[in-house]
Design a protein that fits this description.
Strand order of the largest sheet: 9-14-13-15-16-18-17
Shape: globular
Helix content: 25-40%
Low-confidence stretches: none
Number of strands: 18
Structural class: alpha/beta
Length: about 525
């Protein structure tokens, strides 16, 4: 057995059933092992940032890590943007990065790079296996990191000779890393804060605390104590819709966030961090909360949020509380698109148990308020601010769901160009993904940012934000990648096209001119 074969066997033993790949020469023995050993579905991505983004979306829905296969240091570097987003999402994955044979590295061939340093920029754990005998052991350790509560990005660098040499050994799965317990004194102290300051207290949910079990327990606590609940703006996955509490996120905009948060004297962090701005602005504070606010950490990202919130609810004697009746689903709106109208449209037509992959950037910040009455669904967000994750994350989510759930991509046109190769993978895998391109043909978010930083945009600056010359023909572009597509300028037209796409198990792209 060679090193590559021991790697595949070890991954399968550890529960990995999917590998997102963009392989090269250094990885050919691993690819051959995937052929020889059944058990892993290999999904081809045409660019590495698509590969890492797909693995992120897969984890968010499947709740378990996939593997990625990347070609040497430059290939890993191409995927770093979405590795950054995946770390911020607290996702788990195992990156297999091929590298020069150990005896070839001193010759400094063109693809030779400081792969270890590149990996450490986007990983929680990095190791280079220099012998075939070590590959299985190292892979088991990588899986242990990727499977821990709170996620983990593990990167295993695999020189070619460690892959093709004989002597590989399959390693059994290692014991899971137990999360740090939440001590009873923390529960008691948090309960006391809520009893004494209920209406002035915010429960801020982050990490995996935005999933249903944590939401339900937090809702019990909030209804008993009069406290409020919000999710972080950059939450990775929010379970939403009918049957779920109507939880909003902290606003992105500084003024709006400070207006919402100013009244809270106490903020309880559940897998979350104190809210701060994405950027610093001249003369403006970095924090988005009242400077007199006191913070209390109930849990940190690597802990069991649902268990801690349930213990808190028991400490407070909080009983199960029925959710308020919120009325019927919205009617399908008509006319020219607006952010509120598009949100109502999504809520009106989405199938039960859909997945929304949202990279709508500035256009979609208010979507939640109009969509609480939608059928139950998952909403996935851009977590690290590195644009180009919307279509890859949606693609990985569709694969995690086995093609049985409709994915709706809300995609800004500028950031869509960063990773449009994901459409090709959607077509190749025949995935039920409906992508709505929000086509305003400009980087609209940066127009507001000019004002925020106190700059005065002139003709050169505005030209840098313009995507209309030449205009991107999204219908022809999608068609060339094997995806059916159409263009519309109205909400009712978008609704008709969405329902048309839902009737088929294949990707569909709608260019919505806004």
């Amino acid at each position: 057995m060679n090193g590559a074969q021991s790697l595949v066997h070890t991954l399968i033993a550890g529960g990995v059933d999917t590998c997102f790949a963009n392989p090269g020469t250094s990885e050919m023995h691993f690819v051959a092992a995937l052929d020889q050993i059944p058990g892993i579905h290999c999904v081809l991505g045409l660019q590495e940032n698509v590969v890492t983004g797909m693995a992120d979306g897969y984890y968010r829905i499947a709740g378990k890590p996939a593997a990625t296969l990347l070609h040497c240091g430059p290939g890993l570097a191409n995927g770093l943007g979405n590795l950054h987003n995946a770390r911020r999402a607290h996702s788990g994955m195992v990156n297999i990065v091929g590298d020069q044979a150990t005896w070839h590295r001193p010759f400094d061939a063109p693809l030779t790079a400081d792969t270890d340093s590149l990996a450490r920029a986007g990983s929680d754990w990095v190791r280079t296996s220099v012998r075939a005998e070590d590959v299985g052991r190292d892979a088991a350790m990588a899986l242990q990191i990727a499977r821990r509560i709170g996620g983990g990005i593990a990167t295993l660098i695999l020189p070619s000779d460690a892959s093709w040499d004989e002597g590989g050994e399959v390693a059994p799965p290692l014991h899971p890393i137990a999360p740090a317990p939440v001590c009873g004194t923390t529960i008691e102290a948090t309960a006391r804060i809520l009893r004494e300051n209920g209406s002035n207290t915010l429960i801020l949910l982050g990490s995996h605390a935005t999933l249903a079990a944590s939401q339900d327990a937090a809702w019990r606590v909030a209804q008993t104590t009069g406290s409020a609940i919000l999710g972080e703006f950059v939450c990775a996955r929010m379970e939403r819709g009918r049957g779920r509490p109507p939880i909003e996120r902290v606003p992105y905009n500084q003024a709006a966030a400070m207006m919402v948060l100013d009244r809270f004297s106490q903020i309880i962090l559940v897998g979350a961090k104190p809210p701060v701005g994405f950027f610093g602005y001249p003369g403006q504070p970095s924090i988005h909360f009242n400077p007199n606010t006191q913070f209390h950490a109930l849990t940190r990202p690597g802990q069991d949020h649902a268990a801690a919130l349930l213990a808190l609810a028991e400490e407070l004697g909080a009983q199960a509380v029925y959710l308020p009746e919120r009325g019927p689903r919205p009617e399908i709106p008509t006319g020219s698109p607006t952010p509120e109208g598009l949100a109502r449209l999504i809520a009106a037509v989405m199938p039960e148990n859909s997945i929304v992959s949202d990279e709508s950037v500035s256009y979609g910040r208010g979507f939640y308020a109009e969509s609480h009455n939608a059928p139950s669904h998952d909403w996935l967000h851009l977590t690290g601010g590195a644009i180009g994750d919307g279509m890859p994350v949606g693609t990985g989510a569709a694969i995690a769901a086995g093609g049985q759930r409709r994915v709706i991509g809300l995609q800004a046109d500028g950031s869509a160009m960063y990773s449009l190769q994901a459409l090709w993978t959607q077509s190749r895998e025949r995935l039920p993904v409906t992508t709505i391109i929000l086509s305003n043909r400009k980087y609209a978010i940066l127009i507001g940012e000019y004002t925020g930083v106190g700059a005065t945009p002139g003709p050169t600056a505005m030209n840098m934000l313009d995507l209309s010359t030449p205009a991107i023909d999204w219908v022809r572009l999608a068609n060339s990648l094997g995806v059916e597509a159409a263009r519309t300028e109205t909400l009712e037209g978008c609704a008709d096209l969405m329902r048309q796409s839902f009737s088929q198990r294949s990707p569909f792209l709608i260019e919505l001119v806004i």
